[in-house]
Amino acid sequence: MARNVLVECAVDATLKRVDAFIAGEKLAALPDAAARAAMDGQLGHGSNSVRLASLFFVFYATVDSAWNCNSIPTGIRGTYGDKRLATQLGLRSITLHNAITAFGENLGWKGNVTNSRLQNDVRFDGFARALAGLNAEQRMLCADYMAARFAESRKVIAPLPPVADDVLTYARARKLFYSLIAIPSEGNVQQFLIAALLFVHRQRYGYDILTHHVHASDRFDTTAGDIEELLNGDLVRAYEVTVRPDWKNRMGDFRKKMDGASLRKYTIIASNVNRDDDLAEPADMIRFLAPYGRDIAVVDIRDFINVFAMELNADELRRAVTQTYSYITTPSLCGRADIIDKFNVVVEGWLDEAT
Q: Candidates 1.20.120, 3.90.1690, 3.40.1350, 3.90.920; correct CATH number of 170-354?
């Protein structure tokens, strides 16, 4: 099978947008009613392969403007096409396609597929004709709509079973969280636990929490912080979470992020703040922060955990643990098997002690 770079681009674009919706992004706008109906028809199709192929096709239509929405793109099958898309969605715990592994093969698109036409296939006829009639803007809206629907089907098995309030108490939650932030994970577990606690708490008030790969801010400098808090789509606060011993050398960078995002307050959550000679006492912290001329809150990670363990009820605490697990099992955020294993060992050990 010939290799088609546009097929690879379509798969990459699909995964990028699915990841964005997994991470909490919302649809900025919806496709028009007719286009949305065409997408919904495919999403509700009884065939898992049809659902996944339709997701692929709508993204392919956004990267190949010359495609007629009728022929089957060359190279759709194989390592860079249908198999990669299915495998990667499986790694993200997406369930809408029911873990099929190769939609092209399942749908009978063998050989060079030059004689196959979507508009002659009852499974795709209406969808393909609707897609062909859309302009570039509507195609992008449809692609995002489909990606969001797939992301919505993500099912992560909760690492903690439902437990009673007398099991997940404040004191026991603190013990669990302290054990989690002690995991050597290059900052992954620490950042994502903080993000998860914020995520659950802020849901009460309609705020959205977005978090990023632990190296995203440092590597690309495109985000205001490791964690961003939004209200109605507008950034209202950013948080930096760090367990690095040299983080104080980056205060100038944090100020630039704060100013770049026009934030009135910036929060740094770090380890061992309460034992730091420059920060432990309020007067010392004032002196340390004075040269930067900004309202920067520097919080010990354990203090942060204590407050949220107190504030959240048992159900919310359990959701926070599940959300942390969701973050670290998402390939675009972490997805590292060694960190996932360490996380599970800590949670299992905590359960053993609690029962």
A: 3.40.1350
